[in-house]
Here is the input.
Amino acid sequence: QVHLVESGGGLVQAGGSLRLSCAASGRTVSAYAMGWFRQAPGKEREFVAVIRWGAPNYADSVKGRVTISRDNAKNTVYLQMNSLKPEDTAVYYCAADDRPGWVASRDPGRYDYWGQGTQVTVSA
Here is the structure.
């Protein structure tokens, strides 16, 4: 089992920055695909970013403003968000896909482990 705990959310003005953290425990996640997703009220959960092998992958809506990274020594994944917009307001979730291989999916259905989420609110 993998246990994921997100932190770093909060209230920020438009144009501001936040860094979200996802601390994993139970297993080493260095070989896993680690994704960030978000869900706004009344909307479906959507892909934000994923990292595994090679270059990270980003949703078009955040590309150029968001950077996903991982610190394998700390078993932690980060999401640096800059130039935040009100439409970035959502609960942000970290997720892990532990299936062997090279896939770094945008599909939330592929991820078996999820954190509890952290709220990000961007005011205009």
Remarks:
- The CA atoms of residues 15 and 83 lie 4 Å apart.
- The chain has a mean pLDDT of 96.
- The chain has no helices and eleven strands.
- The longest strand covers residues 18-25.
